[in-house]
Specification:
single chain; 349 residues; alpha/beta; two-stranded antiparallel sheet; 6 strands; globular; binds 1-[(4S)-2,5-dioxoimidazolidin-4-yl]urea; 2-oxo-4-hydroxy-4-carboxy-5-ureidoimidazoline decarboxylase; lyase
Length: 349
């Protein structure tokens, strides 16, 4: 979900039946019996009424934007068409009170908006996939901590659900995979789960699938590393080019993959001062002009100061050394991402 992105292409055409069937099969949540909700104030009372009549409580976590929510989170995903300024807030608080009073012990209401502002997002934009979730406008009640012990109730709007089912955003409803599960995945599923281990790396995952069965998570990681190491120089450069600039325009517009978004955050790149941002932009450009690929560094292993310093130092390297250094960082990023997906059952001494 870059910030976790919901990106798609074209209009979605899943019918209600298809949605229900595939939701029931592959996800563990129910679809609200609400087919025409536009998320705007106009039909708030209609939705509230439907919610009141619907028993919806499933355990799932949805990752959207920069955040993911644990299984005990109560999440209502809302969007707003915002015809009238301020309508979102009154709409959301109405909804909140209706539901809270009636059926839930507690509720986290998360409101999504476009990068352009609170009231600019419409469901149409969401369905055509032209926007990205970039920002959390705020929580009703403004106290995030107070939401940590919530019941497992999830209400996912139809459009978000469609996006999830189409694989355009991630759900964390599933546990980490056990190795046996990894080994039994058909290649389509394997690519779905591991295609992001190398950024936009479906091809890498598709190739690594041939190396099953993996006898340990280390062997799985090694298969990815081996593939990367064996690439010709143009292939290595090509892989490096799949990565977004750190704190670059994709980050700025909220268009990073979910993985990159979290990595940026871990390094503190979401809190750069304007001076630091300008320095990074300038160094990134110089680096790309010199080498023809972006500066890549494992953000989870570095803080922003180390990243800026790394840029300054590595810009002086020879191109061939930089390909190897960049690829080494790609491998570190990949290793960490793989360990996020798969349970490590290696006995610890
Ligand atoms: N340019 C670059 O290093 N990008 C990345 N690094 C990282 O840890 N995640 C990225 O997307």
């Amino acid at each position: 979900m870059s910030g976790g992105i919901l990106r798609g292409g074209g209009r979605l055409s899943l019918s209600d039946c298809e949605l229900r069937a595939s939701a029931a099969k592959s996800m563990r949540y129910e679809l609200l019996p609400c087919t025409d909700w536009r998320g705007c104030g106009r039909c708030a009372s209609d939705l509230a009424e439907k919610l009141r009549k619907t028993r919806v409580h499933k355990r799932i976590t949805v990752t959207l934007g920069n955040d993911s929510y644990s299984e005990s989170t109560v999440l209502v995903q809302t969007v707003s068409s915002g015809k009238a300024p301020g309508s979102c807030h009154s709409y959301l608080s109405n909804l909140f009170h209706v539901i809270l009073a009636d059926k839930c012990d507690a509720l986290l209401l998360r409101h999504l908006c476009s990068k352009f502002g609170h009231d600019r997002l419409s469901v149409v934009e969401l369905l055509t996939g032209t926007f990205t979730f970039v920002e959390l406008v705020g929580y009703i009640l403004n106290a995030r901590e107070s939401f940590l012990e919530l019941l497992s109730v999830v209400v996912v709007t139809r459009c978000v659900l469609e996006q999830i089912l189409r694989g355009h955003c991630t759900t964390m409803g599933k546990q980490k995979l056990e190795l046996a599960e990894v080994n039994s995945l058909p290649y389509e599923e394997f690519i779905k789960r591991f295609g992001g281990a190398v950024e936009h790396g479906a091809l890498v995952a598709g190739a690594v699938w041939s190396r099953r069965p993996f006898t340990s998570i280390d062997k799985l990681c090694a298969a990815f590393m081996d593939f990367l190491d064996k690439l010709p120089i143009e292939g290595k450069e090509g892989v490096i080019r799949l990565y977004p600039d750190l704190a670059g325009h994709l980050a700025h517009s909220g268009s990073l993959t979910a993985e990159s978004t979290q990595e940026h955050k871990a390094a503190g790149l979401d809190t750069l001062t304007s001076e630091e941002r300008a320095t990074m932009a300038e160094l990134n450009e110089r680096y790309k002009t010199k080498f023809g690929f972006p500066f890549v560094i494992c953000a989870r292993e570095n803080k922003k100061e180390a990243i800026i310093n790394g840029l300054e130092v590595r810009i002086g390297n020879h191109a061939s050394a930089e390909v190897e250094t960049g690829l080494g960082e790609v491998k570190k990023i990949c290793d960490l991402r793989l360990r996020d997906i798969v349970t490590d059952s290696t006995p610890k001494l």
